[in-house]
Write a structure and sequence with these properties.
This protein has 14 helices and 14 strands. The protein is of the alpha/beta class and 336 residues long. The protein folds into two domains: 172 residues, Rossmann fold (3-Layer(aba) Sandwich); 133 residues, Glycogen Phosphorylase B (Rossmann fold). It has a six-stranded parallel β-sheet, sandwiched between helices. A six-stranded parallel β-sheet has the order 11-10-9-12-13-14, with helices on both faces. Strands 3-4 form a two-stranded antiparallel sheet. It holds the Pfam family Glyco_transf_4.
Length: 336
Amino acid sequence: MKRITIVTDAWSPQRNGVVVVLEHLVPALTKTGYEVAVIQPGLFRFHLPMPTYPEIRLALSTVRKMRRMLQHSRPDHVHVMTEGTLGFAARLACVRGGLSFTTSYETQFPLYAEKRMRGLARPSYRYMRWFHSKSGAIMVPTESMRHILSAKGFHRLVVWPRGVDANLFKASACVFKDLPKPCFVYFGRIAIEKNVEEFLSLPLPGSKLVIGDGPDRAKLERLYGSSATFVGYKTGQELVDALSCADVFVCPSRTETFGLTIVEALSCGIPVAAHDATGPRDILTPGVDGFLDEDLARAAVACLPLSKEACREKALQYSWGRCVDEFLRHLVPVGR
């Protein structure tokens, strides 16, 4: 039985795209016949809150301990999912131990950093280039990300697509029946890099629904709570039932690498209004299942007559089965 060791700084109870991918990837790999070891924050005693994002706890590990954990898992393949403290230790442990490995570029941290403090994008890209420089393959979710990173000096870039659970994400009965129509929704993390305030400030008819949580929720709910309904994090069928109240998903983020929420909305038959940015431009066909526009209010209203069936059809192009197949195809042997 082949063994795969995955190192990640993101793990349950965190809710983000990396965790969602791993929740589908790990069981599928096991079912396929691989033995999967996940080195994740819960295995470590000491943690520190992530600067400007205290709800994310960064696990602390020495390179020596990480090397012991990698040796104990006896992997045929090592994949480093994130560039945080555990990813950093795993990268050094692999390089020093002569192990080949692959990496993912899951999050646009340089853009996140720039949102929080001007001038951080350039040093952040420098760190990211160093981090991924020894990777046997840098897996990115979209062609747009591959082109952007190639232009910034990253090499050995390959596209690793994402999926959606179409059996779960399908239209159901709305649970917020009192919301005036049309209903425009944002769902996901409520943080500065997601640009949620742009959605909340749009002059739209009907009502606005916000599903999710994060460091900016309290501030935005205080400012916009009279004109939008905030319902917190939802998962599973509870999320689908809330989403099913919406006529349009408004995705204001300009920092996505893919945008799992986009295909989840489409799978429920909900068209998407977004900026022409990485993620949305890779997924949406303007005029069919969404619109791309600098004016999100115009895009959102234009989405209202679009076909729910066309949205669902687009989502069905993204399967977790293909995601797993491509992940396996891009792995490299450790080469001990």
